[in-house]
Structure formats: C-alpha cells, structure tokens
Amino acid sequence: RFSIDGVQAGIALQIEIDHAGCAVAKLRLELPVGSDERLEDLGDIVLRSATSLVVRVVGPDDQAVEEAKVLARDEDRASQAGLEIVWQEASARGGGEYVFERIGCGRSTVFASAPGHGWARESIPLPRADPYLIQLTESARINGTVRTNDERPIEGARITARARYEDEAPIESRTDPSG
Questions:
Q1: Where would I find the beta strands (DSSP E) of 24-144?
Q2: Quick check: 86 and 14 in contact, CB under 8 A?
Q3: Which residues, 6+ apart, have CB-to-CB distance to 78 below 8 Å?
Q4: Cβ(56)–Cβ(132) under 8 Å?
Q5: In sequence order, what are the residues at sequence separation of 6 or more whose Cβ sits closer than 8 angstroms to the Cβ of residue 52?
Q6: Which of 1, 3, 47, 88 maximizes the CB count within 10 A of its CB?
Q7: What is the pTM of this model?
Q8: 45 to each of 12, 24, 48, 126, how far by Cα in Å?
Q9: Which stretches of the chain are DSSP H helices?
Q10: How many DSSP H helices and E strands does the chain contain?
Q11: Contact indicator for 127, 105 with CB cutoff of 8 Å
Q12: How far apart are CA 141 and CA 147, in angstroms?
C-alpha cells in the first residue's frame, strides 16, 4: 500500500508510478470539491511489463518528419476510481524516428502531429520489434481572431483543437499580438 498526504480537493494531480523493469504509469486524478471524503482509495494499480516502441513519422511525400510530437497512452488500462490515463511523449531520435522507453505491453493509442501536417491516430499492439510507420497527411488551416467585447485583440489566448474524440491529444496554438 501507499499513501500520499497533503492532496487538495479540486486540484488536478498527476500521479507517476515508476518501478525498474515495469512500464511507467502516468495517471491524473482530481478529488471533487466539497467532498466529505478525506481518503480516496485508488485500489490496485497494475504496472505492465515494459517494452520500447520506435515510431517513424513521415509526411504525405514519404519524407521523414523531424518536428513531430508523438504521444501514446495505454488503451488496455481501464479508468478506475476517477483516474485518467495521461498521454506520454516520445523522445526524438532523429531521421523522423521517435522512441518510447518503458511503455506498457498491450495495446496503445499513438497520436502524431507536426507543424504543416494533419494528425494521425493509430492503435498499436505491443510489444513489436520493428519501428511503426505513421504517415501524416496534408493539413488544412483554421484561422480566426480573438478579441475582447470592446474589440481589442487578445494576445496569448490558448486555442485547443481536438479530433473527434474528447480524449484525443489536442493540437494547440496561441494568439499573436493581433489576436
């Protein structure tokens, strides 16, 4: 058993569970405000066997994409006790390859995006020996301006776009000085 004291209700808390030889588990939890509960029992958290995954990202022209953001999360881990599975980011290795170290065996959703490209989402069974190829499509662009109710542009507003599913990794942008 484990216990973490000093947790405040209403604040999102990311929990990372790490043990050598196992996949790192990253979970998010938020205790509800106004709850009389002073203890949240998360139950059993199973650490999966670890493997690594190399993802090769290419564009529509089959050329390696160097500035991609590649994320993954465990599909097989069921949400429990209000826990949300956190997306993990791969490390760039060069040549359009991105690597996840100590990712869990089973099925993972992998999401890839890059400036100037559309995004891709794949379901990948793990472990696997060969790099997994993800091909990004050409992208479309959404433009707009963010202003106050008295028509002044707002600089630095965060814009978030998600694919069809609410749990998809978002594509983010910020407004420039013109809003």
A1: 25-29, 50-58, 69-74, 84-85, 88-89, 91-94, 97-104, 106-113, 120-126, 132-135
A2: yes
A3: none
A4: yes
A5: 99, 100, 101, 102, 103
A6: 88
A7: 0.75
A8: 19, 11, 10, 20
A9: none
A10: 0, 13
A11: yes
A12: 20
Please give the structure tokens belonging to residue 40.
């949240």
104 CB-near residues (< 8 Å, 6+ apart): 23, 25, 47, 48, 49, 50, 51, 74, 76, 77, 126
**Contact between residue 45 and residue 17 where contact means Cβ atoms under 8 Å apart:** yes
29 strand-pairing partners: 13
Provide DSSP, 27-41.
Answer: EEE-PPTT---S---
